[in-house]
Automatic annotation (TrEMBL):
GO terms for molecular function: metalloendopeptidase activity. It comes from Lichenifustis flavocetrariae. This is M23 family metallopeptidase. Residues 1-25 form the signal peptide. SUPFAM superfamilies: Duplicated hybrid motif (SSF51261).
């Protein structure tokens, strides 16, 4: 194993470029968060392959940002973060460095000056065989379960997902390096400028769950009142709708949409369509968007039956996100 213990943790946040291997690496990475993509977490950002040009992910998409050197695995809500979600060692190895003691507070609240040279937040670096290293950022304060010098097994809990360092949402940022160079675990060895290729370093057992998404729905539901992003972040669960509910509102929180994307919600009740609303094309790329539309209670109350909303996002005239969610009123 390569043990470069003299490197400072803060220096690991620099952008050293990509490692282009001559041969395939002998490493398989397990998923580093105790969550299931598409159900209890989502990928917010991939590694930036843009070089000196505009940022682009390994599929030449926009699910990244300039200089991003890792994979961001986002929990669905702050309520999930508060429950405690384990960060897991992606492969067997030895802990090189660790940092704890930083508060779990959004950088939008405390400002960048408060975390200067500590963007990674509470963090660990683990060395693996053949010069590989994994770096785990933004973990929850006081949850680190290992220390420098400890030997860890693949899948071993090493801390909790948190909100420390340079982040505004609960997630794990994992950077993979080989011989000090950043590599993309989704496209190891991909030819520079290509939009596909390379080899996935993720374990074959989980690769099918990690299909690329150009954008996705993080949270959605039907409610009887106006819903705010704060409501969603604090774990708004399914509401019980009744004939006397003051409204039926469909809400959606989506991530990683692109300039020009068109969002639409169609709401259908037991007696037919209730609304069909489209938003104007997005003026810029968005890490996160919120959309909520609804109808007030009719004079005679809501008729019993199924109420279903379908949210779609169209890009260049083609729908690439579609999600339907429903609730029942009465028997």
């Amino acid at each position: 194993m390569s043990m470069r213990s003299t490197l400072r943790l803060a220096a690991l946040l620099s952008w050293p470029g990509f490692y282009a291997p001559q041969a395939m690496a002998e490493i398989a990475l397990g998923w580093p968060v105790a969550c299931q993509v598409g159900e209890t977490c989502e990928i917010q950002h991939y590694v930036d392959h843009g070089g000196g040009a505009a940022a682009k992910d390994y599929r030449c998409g926009t699910v990244t940002y300039k200089g991003h050197n890792g994979t961001d695995i986002r929990l669905l809500t702050m309520a999930d973060e508060r429950k405690g979600v384990n960060v897991l060692a992606a492969a067997p190895g030895k802990v090189l460095r660790a940092r704890d003691g930083m508060a779990d507070v959004s950088v939008a609240v405390i400002g960048h000056d408060a975390i200067k040279d500590r963007d990674c937040g509470n963090a660990l670096v683990i060395a693996h065989a053949d010069g590989f290293e994994t770096q785990y950022c933004h973990m929850a304060q006081g949850t680190l379960m290992v220390k420098p010098g400890d030997v860890v097994a693949a899948g071993q809990p090493i801390g909790h997902v948190g909100l420390s360092g340079d982040t505004e949402f609960p997630h794990l940022h994992i950077t993979v390096r080989r011989d000090g160079k950043v590599i993309d675990p989704f496209a190891y060895g991909e030819t520079e400028g290509a939009c596909s290729g390379g080899v996935s370093l993720w374990s074959p057992a989980i690769q099918r769950t990690l299909a690329y998404k150009a954008g996705t729905v993080l949270n959605a539901g039907l409610a009887s009142r106006a819903v705010t992003m704060s409501d969603i972040e604090n774990g708004l669960g399914p509401e019980v709708l009744t004939p006397d509910s003051p409204a039926v509102l469909a809400y959606v929180q989506a991530i990683t949409l692109r300039q020009g994307d068109v969002q639409r919600i169609v709401l259908i009740g037991p007696n037919g369509p209730l609304l069909d609303h489209s938003e104007p094309p997005l003026p810029s790329n968005k890490d996160q968007v919120y959309m909520g539309v609804g109808r007030k209670r009719p004079a005679l109350g809501w008729p019993p039956g199924r109420y279903a909303a379908t949210y779609t996002v169209a890009r260049d005239g083609k729908v690439f996100i579609e999600k339907t969610f429903a609730a029942q009123i009465g028997p």
